[in-house]
Amino acid sequence: MALIEINNLYFRYKDGTQALRGLTLRIEGGRKTAILGPNGAGKSTMLLHLNGIHLAQQGEVLFAGEAVSRSNERQVRSRVGMVFQDPDDQVFSATVWEDVAFGPSNMGLSHKEIEARVHAALKATGMWDYAGKAPYHLSYGQKKRVAIAGILAMDPEVIILDEPVAFLDPRGKDTVFAILNELNRRGATVIIATHDVDLAAEWADDVIVIAGGRCLAQGGTELLVNERVIREAELRYPVVARIFQELPELELPVLPGNVPAAVAALRRHLFAVKGK
Ligand SMILES: Nc1ncnc2c1ncn2[C@@H]1O[C@H](COP(=O)(O)OP(=O)(O)O)[C@@H](O)[C@H]1O
Ligand SMILES: [Mg+2]
């Protein structure tokens, strides 16, 4: 059984926008999953179902085999931490410290434990020096880091990040992904939504491609060099793959989509040339 299963999910906003139209997908526990799709595909709407902010209007969302509903949304929310696309939706306390302490304070932890968690989360996200500042005065990228710290401090089993790298500088991006990888190494399930194919190709174990409120394809990173998937989801090839598209003389059976695949392909080629 997959940790998260969505079956034939439909969701329509109050203004009549049909955001999800029969979405079906599986997310395995303990893995790094990237949800890809163009703007308006339904990624954020789908993610908001995973911690009960939206509830299924038709179809079902199962978490650990149980349908997410009004009656268990709190319990699901304690296990699933969500970093919203827009940190202004998430960061609202008087100080950065209070903001990060908000989640753990509602978990019935001791003062000492809360302090330790907030400290660790602010250190990990590089925001410790801002602990006493008002989030209001921070840049967008800094607010995003605070939002991430707030979720880290809750130590959830599943961490979901909607467009995690939007507005982050390269260093901030590296910091966030180092944290996500460490969490995953310790057993957490990490799910991100992004339209960044390069990021997904480098980082993800599993890829889910959504377009028009439906799942177009689900599999490994090889989907990101699949011509049909790219066309139908209005994505583009990862940069690495585009380089190899210019090199048909290498006669590669599949286009490498990320750096390790490219290095392996080049090694094989160099080895073959040398062997001749
Ligand atoms: N609060 C809302 N009210 C009405 N329509 C919305 C709302 N949020 C999103 N939508 C619409 O739902 C569709 C899916 O949006 P969204 O889930 O945000 O896609 P994505 O995250 O993939 O860009 C889009 O057509 C979007 O305009
Ligand atoms: Mg979105």
What does this structure look like?
- The protein is α/β, with parallel strands linked by helices and 276 residues long.
- The chain has two domains: 4-90 and 156-236, P-loop containing nucleotide triphosphate hydrolases (Rossmann fold); 238-276, no CATH class.
- Helix content is 38%, strand content 21%.
- It is built from ten helices and ten strands.
- The strands form two sheets. The protein has a six-stranded mixed β-sheet with strand order 6-7-8-3-9-10, with helices on both faces. A four-stranded antiparallel β-sheet has the order 2-1-4-5, covered by helices on one side.
- The chain is globular, with a radius of gyration of 20 Å.
- The N and C termini lie far apart (49 Å).
- Magnesium ion (MG) is lined by residues 43-44, 85, 162.
- Adenosine-5'-diphosphate is lined by residues 13, 15, 17, 19, 37, 39-45.
Keywords:
10 strands; about 20% strand; Rossmann fold; about 280 residues; 10 helices; binds magnesium ion; six-stranded mixed sheet; four-stranded antiparallel sheet; alpha/beta; about 40% helix; globular; binds adenosine-5'-diphosphate
Question: Can you give me a brief rundown of this structure?
Answer:
The chain is of the alpha/beta class and 276 residues long. The chain is built from 10 helices and 10 strands.
CATH topology-level fold name of the largest domain: Rossmann fold
Distance between the termini: 49 Å
Low-confidence stretches: none
Q: Based on CA inertia axes, which overall geometry fits?
A: globular
| CATH homologous superfamily grouping of the largest domain | P-loop containing nucleotide triphosphate hydrolases
Number of domains: 2
Give the tally of β-strands.
Answer: 10
Known CATH architecture of the largest domain: 3-Layer(aba) Sandwich
Helix run count? 10
Helical percent range?
25-40%
Output the strand order for the largest sheet.
Answer: 6-7-8-3-9-10
Strand content: 15-25%
Q: Please, what is the average pLDDT?
A: 93
- Briefly, what CATH class of the largest domain? Alpha Beta
Radius of gyration: 20 Å
- How is the biggest beta sheet arranged? 6 strands, mixed
| Element pattern in H and E | EEEHEEHEHHHEHEHEEHHH
Class inferred from helices and paired strands:
alpha/beta
Q: Which hetero compounds are present in the coordinates?
A: adenosine-5'-diphosphate, magnesium ion
